[in-house]
UniProtKB/TrEMBL annotation:
Cofactor note: Binds 2 divalent metal cations per subunit.
Cofactor(s) the protein needs: a divalent metal cation
A Pfam family annotated for this UniProt entry: PTE
Classification via SUPFAM superfamilies: Metallo-dependent hydrolases (SSF51556)
InterPro entries linked to this entry: Metal_Hydrolase (IPR032466), Phosphotriesterase (IPR001559)
Top-level taxonomic group: Bacteria
Organism: Pseudonocardia autotrophica
Residues noted as binding a divalent metal cation 1 in the record, renumbered to the chain: H21, H23, E159, D287
Name assigned to this protein: Aryldialkylphosphatase
Membership in a protein family: Belongs to the metallo-dependent hydrolases superfamily. Phosphotriesterase family.
GO molecular function: hydrolase activity; zinc ion binding
Length: 339
């Protein structure tokens, strides 16, 4: 079955290594209200301040919209073995369809574009006045007709952003996204609020609309759930559990009182889930959306999962078939859209 990219559908077998939750071109720093300890200054990133900016983030840090930077970064990703990448940048986050096409053409990396809307802080003016059916129709159009004069098609619904507690407009967007998911067969990716109850709450809302949850992705499990029991309870809903913050090794989290895990801890949780028969329901990614995550600015780069995490997994008891399942088969099956 095909995977839908900004340059057209490709056979799923050609998708290779896939990172299902990244941001190739985005502006997450521009619309949000000041949160946590995020820096209010926009100092250029230098060797002298890169740690402080990476620890707290800033508006400039959250502006990852330079095509040349993206080409360089995805070239490293390609050379490390990366084949396909999902840009989960939804409307309001600085989605750039033309830019994604250029990056894909210049690197040869297949790029899957997201659709829908992020959480309330990023909603475009007037979104609150639109009906559920109107929202669903736009998402379906992104997937089937395409965006803008170039008609670049999205291949994923999401990331659909929810706060905590969930705003009524966010709820309407989520339910519209479920409608589009059912109409098109495209996967639905959810960004839950920053609370342990948020993922299950989101899935309950989805389950009110459909019993089909096999192609629903719950993002950011590794900044939201911190016990295996919580993860298993979420897995019981049938969704994918996405550990998508690999490379973010600092336990300090600037946006909420959360103690973040290390990559080694993430791998330990994933091993435990696989040992319980859930190897088909886990996804791995990095959620790169800040300049300080890019190699040019001293960060880990999109190839960190391939360069560093896969070898760690192999040392920790995963065999090559496990790794293939988690980094190739699972994301391909999630992204494939039935004709």
């Amino acid at each position: 079955m095909p995977v839908r990219t900004v340059r057209g559908d490709i056979d799923g077998a050609a998708a290779g290594h896939i990172q299902p939750h990244e941001h190739v071109l985005s502006r997450i720093g521009h619309a949000a209200r000041q949160q946590g300890s995020a820096l209010t200054t926009d100092h250029p990133i230098t060797l002298e301040n890169v740690y402080e900016i990476r620890r707290h983030h800033s508006r400039l840090d959250g502006t990852v919209d330079d095509v040349t930077d993206a080409v360089d970064e995805l070239t490293w990703y390609r050379d490390a073995g990366g084949t396909t990448i999902v840009d989960a940048t939804s409307i309001g986050l600085g989605r750039d369809p033309d830019g994604l096409v250029e990056v894909s053409e210049r690197t040869g990396v297949h790029v899957v574009m997201g659709s829908g809307w992020y959480h309330r802080d990023y909603h475009p003016s007037g979104l609150e006045r639109r009906s559920r059916s109107e929202l669903a129709e736009e998402i379906v159009g992104d997937l089937t007709t395409g965006v803008g004069p170039g008609a670049m098609k999205a291949g994923l619904i999401g990331e659909i952003g929810l706060g905590w507690p969930v705003d009524p407009v966010e709820d309407r967007v989520l339910r519209a996204a479920v409608d589009a998911h059912l109409a098109t067969g495209a996967a639905l990716m959810i960004h839950p609020g920053r609370a342990p109850r948020a993922p299950l709450d989101a899935m309950r809302r989805v389950q009110e609309e459909t019993s089909s949850t096999a192609k629903v992705v719950m993002s950011h499990v590794d900044r939201t759930l911190f016990t295996l029991d919580e993860m298993l309870e979420l897995a019981d809903t049938g969704c994918y559990l996405e550990f998508d913050l690999f490379g973010q090794e600092s336990s300090y989290y600037p946006y909420a009182d959360i103690d973040m895990p290390s990559d080694a801890t993430r791998v330990r949780y994933i091993r435990a889930l696989c040992d319980r028969g859930l190897q088909d329901r886990v996804l791995l990614s990095q959620d790169i959306c800040f300049r300080t995550h890019l190699r040019r600015y001293g960060g880990e780069g999109y190839d960190h999962l391939l360069r560093n995490v896969v070898p760690l997994m192999l040392r920790r008891g995963f065999d090559p078939d496990d790794v293939r399942r988690l980094t190739i088969d699972n994301p391909r099956e999630m992204l494939e859209i039935a004709p």
